[in-house]
Amino acid sequence: MNKNAANAGSGATQAGRPARLSLADWIPKIVMAPTVVAAVVCIYGYMIWTAVLSFTNSRMLPSYKFVGLEQYERLFMNDRWIVALTNLGVFGGLFILICLFLGVMLAIFLDQKIRAEGAIRTIYLYPMAISFIVTGTAWKWLLNPTNGIEKMMIELGFEDFRFNWLSDPDMVVYCLVIAAVWQASGFVMALFLAGLRGVDGEMIKAAQLDGAGIITTYRRIILPSLKPVFFSALVILSHIAIKSFDLVAALTNGGPGYSSDLPANFMYAHAFTRSQIGLGAASAMVMLGCVLAILIPYLYSELRGERHE
Amino acid sequence: MANLVIENVKKRYGQTEILKGINISIEAGEFLILVGPSGCGKSTLMNSIAGLEDVSEGRILIDDDDVTYSSPKDRDIAMVFQSYALYPNMTVAENISFGLEMRKVPKDEREAEVQRVADMLQIGHLLKRKPAQLSGGQRQRVAMGRALARRPKMYLFDEPLSNLDAKLRVEMRTEIKKLHQKLGTTIVYVTHDQIEAMTLADRIAVMKDGEVQQLGTPQEIYDNPTNLFVAGFMGSPAMNFVPAKVVEQNGAFALELQASKPTIVPFSDQESLKPYLGKEILLGLRPEMITEPQPHKEGAAFVVTADIDVEVTEPMGADTMVLTRISEAEVNCRCNPVYPTKAGETIAMMLDTSKAVAFDKDTGERIDQ
């Protein structure tokens, strides 16, 4: 459509009809306008509003009495927030590391010219198509001590088998890791598989002639050449980790107690159910800071890379 | 330094036979070029020599050792690839020394070797750079450096110059030839460029459809091609193939051509023409066999002057190529640029058939010897 508009524009120029030219020039802008407005208002507008609210004493309804950094002080004095942040550290760290490791291994194994690769690839990638709510619910059943894996093992005759992480406040965060890894590692695999397919076959032959075994070839040559893929996967996974809300909501609902809260759940609870809009806004701003801390270096390197080319 | 023997090597992928029994044997220190159109199996043969692909049948011997089933790293060969295949995450120095590192050469020896290779190829100033920061020609040098560093028994070059621009290609060609003269190591080199093959090789194997059509020195292949394919493939501009009728004239066999007027040219190998009396054969004439009349050759055996109709002229500086038509076939002639040639005119040209070759019209095989 844009292309047609552009063609019409150039045709009008040749015919010397400036009225039609301006209309043709406007069409792309008109088409784009709703999206731009929606993005500016709904994303950046509300972002700014949240930032403003985080400096006010808003409770159930927004108020505009500015109290400086008081909400941030309260936030970091709040035990529940500290638990949520610690959980994010544990969950995010393990989730990213395990996903990367599994994804890379799956991709390498799938890249060995095996049979039925297409089918296997789809199977591994499929969890990504499911919402975190579904993943959370399914894993809630699986991990539930009274009717999940534990029950199955006991029925199989392992009477002493215990797998009750879901109800253990110290271990519950690892349940989140299991479910999230199950969902996202196939996606990482797809990213790396695409990367591996782009590796120059002659390079692998050269390594073979140089005397490198298969493990050395991957470790020293192929994987280092996939650095951009690592970087993209890292960015995508870390923002999935920081945004994680629905998984916790479905799998543990923050429990037992608030031991499996993540910052997003904290923010939701305070802003919308506990009438602490100011505190919720402050926690949202901290999360935004985390995302930006990952995104800005990424964008910087991407844009610099483009200029370099 | 090592000799290379390829014995009846066959390669099949399912039903398709890529290599149909290749036999090549070269001495230590020889520069062998495998040349042929794409899909002729030359790269497959190269990969089989390297051990990157298994052969279905036959044997490969390097330095008199049967390496048919050895892994690539045990064959002590190095290869330069068309895409250079440099390791993008390593610096030039690391690229060059990687093979040595894999063979557990101590660090100080590796560094000395990198320095030696860098000096030889004049890439000392590039050692700390990554491949992405190099130009095509520089990458080519690094790829050669990587092969040189291990001092292998044999080098394999897989179309190493195809990705370079024309000028650089000629430069690197000379460089490779110099390198071969200096090192004296056996080289097997794959190319589809017949000029590269002619200029570099000690021996050329011309391949087509998984078979070696002819194995010989560049001059043998140029002067004595075994069949129409080899004759047409080697040489630029290509050999002209002119249909000619075998006739008897003054008790000798000769060939009748249709230039501007019917012309009879003599032919050296009389015996070979005997069975073809009254039939048509294909006469192979290199462009330099049809020139402007040269007084010093006047009256020599196998030299005939004939009128031809000029269709197109292509001045090339050193020579002017004259395109004409003899016996319905398009023919390229190589003229001295001072000789007046003009499209549409009929001019006198001298045909020297002393080194002309004859082919059977149906089989494409060489008739004379």
Number of helices of chain A: 14
Name the poorly predicted regions of chain B.
none
Which structural class do you get from the secondary structure elements of chain A? mainly alpha
Average per-residue pLDDT of chain B, rounded, comes to 90
Percent of sequence in beta strands of chain B: 25-35%
User: Would you state the CATH class of the largest domain in chain A?
Assistant: Mainly Alpha
Cα distance, first to last residue of chain B? Answer: 35 Å
Task: Report the biggest beta sheet of chain B as strand number plus sense, adding barrel if it closes.
Answer: 6 strands, mixed
CATH architecture of the largest domain in chain A: Orthogonal Bundle
User: Secondary-structure element order of chain B, as H and E?
Assistant: EEEHEEEHHHEHEHEEHHEEEHEEEEEEE
Q: Could you tell me how far the N terminus lies from the C terminus of chain A, measured between alpha carbons in angstroms?
A: 30 Å
**CATH-level-4 superfamily name of the largest domain in chain B:** P-loop containing nucleotide triphosphate hydrolases
Q: How many beta strands in the DSSP annotation of chain A?
A: 0
Helix content class of chain B: 10-25%
Number of domains of chain A: 2
